[in-house]
Design brief:
Number of strands: 7
Strand content: 5-15%
Shape: globular
CATH topology: Endonuclease III, domain 1
Order of helices and strands: HEHEEEEHHHHHEEHHHHHHHHH
Number of helices: 16
Number of domains: 1
Low-confidence stretches: 1-12
Length: 330
């Protein structure tokens, strides 16, 4: 991956920070199924669901001024739109579409009910302060692999803005309008991803290597979806059996699909330097040194990295930004 974020804003995005306005009460939309759920302990919807948003104009994700978080999904039962909002100590959820029952059943897990933040013990002053300021951080778990894998592959070796632009174009062109009142889209299904012609990948700014990886993954989507129920090591092996999927891509995917608290991202252009600079003042930290710094957080290294990213503590820029390219214009 290269050049994905500016010194603060991109780092905050990598940490999954998404600002959600305070709720203004809830109403049941027409045709919606409904569920209310009370989380155990603090819950920050923005921090928990933020990693699922792929850029501010993601057609599958939206935050509205009333404090609602909207998200679409292609569930095993079909397309669905989910709206979640805080209502006092409760979470009020509404869902539309054939997959409505599925997303409502999975709501607690999506909002971090399977996460165990008590297992995390800060070992650095910076991490302790970040952890204390964010008691509502929970690690989401979608239970769906391909929906996180495809945009992660799009983010390989390009800037975030390039990847977000590709994601928006492909989802709007090959996805379908989502059920419910918002004008969102549901991601394409696996057969559709596998059949996108080369010229449309090119127009979307996706090179042949990344598009081929997505096509290969889509053709074995059922096998990849099984990884959502696997342990960490087995899930990594299953994903990385697909050519073009390596440690960076598998970690970024399993952080979302499986809620893996230890899935630390390696092979990233910026992350080791950010971790090293934040913890020991060394901006030239490499993957090996980063893993050594995060060793005290074994089992919780992804959570530790997120808390560090959320501080916005990054080394000063000393090189020009990576130039943005758009192969779709060639």
């Amino acid at each position: 991956m290269a050049g994905r974020f500016d010194p603060f804003t991109r780092t905050a995005a990598r940490g999954g920070r998404t600002d959600v306005p305070p709720g203004r009460g809830t109403t049941v939309g027409a045709g919606a199924r409904e569920r209310r759920w009370t989380p155990e302990g603090p819950l920050d919807l923005g921090l928990t669901l933020g990693p699922l948003r792929r850029g501010p104009a993601d057609p599958t994700f939206r935050i509205t001024p009333d404090g609602s978080v909207w998200r679409t999904a292609r569930t095993p039962q079909g397309p669905a739109t989910l709206r979640v909002a805080r209502a006092g100590g409760e979470v009020h959820a509404e869902a539309w579409g054939p997959g409505a029952d599925w997303v409502l059943e999975q709501l607690p897990v999506l909002l971090g009910a399977a996460d165990d933040p008590a297992a995390f013990v800060p070992r650095h002053r910076l991490v302790h302060a970040s952890h204390r300021r964010r008691p509502g951080l929970r690690l989401t778990r979608t239970g769906m692999v391909l929906e996180s894998l495809v945009p992660t592959v799009l983010e390989q070796k390009v800037t975030a803005d390039e990847a977000y632009r590709s994601w928006r174009r492909l989802v709007r062109q090959y996805g379908e309008p989502a059920p419910g009142p918002q004008d969102l889209y549901v991601v394409p299904d696996a057969p559709t991803w596998a059949m996108i012609p080369s010229w449309d990948w090119h127009k979307a700014g996706v090179d042949a290597k990344r598009s081929a990886t997505i096509v290969r993954a889509a053709r074995v989507a059922n096998r990849l979806e099984e990884a959502a129920a696997m342990g960490p090591a087995e899930a990594v092996r299953r994903l990385e059996a697909v050519p073009g999927i390596g440690p960076w891509t598998s970690a970024e995917t399993l952080q979302r699909s499986n809620g893996d608290p230890d899935a630390v991202t390696t092979g990233d252009l910026h992350l080791p330097g950010i971790i090293g600079y934040a913890l020991v003042g060394d901006r030239d930290t490499d993957d090996a040194a980063m893993l050594e710094l995060l060793a005290p957080y074994a089992g919780q290294r992804h959570r530790a990295a997120r808390l560090i990213l959320l501080t916005g503590r990054t080394p000063p820029r000393r090189a020009p930004r990576m130039p943005r390219g758009d192969i779709g214009r060639l």
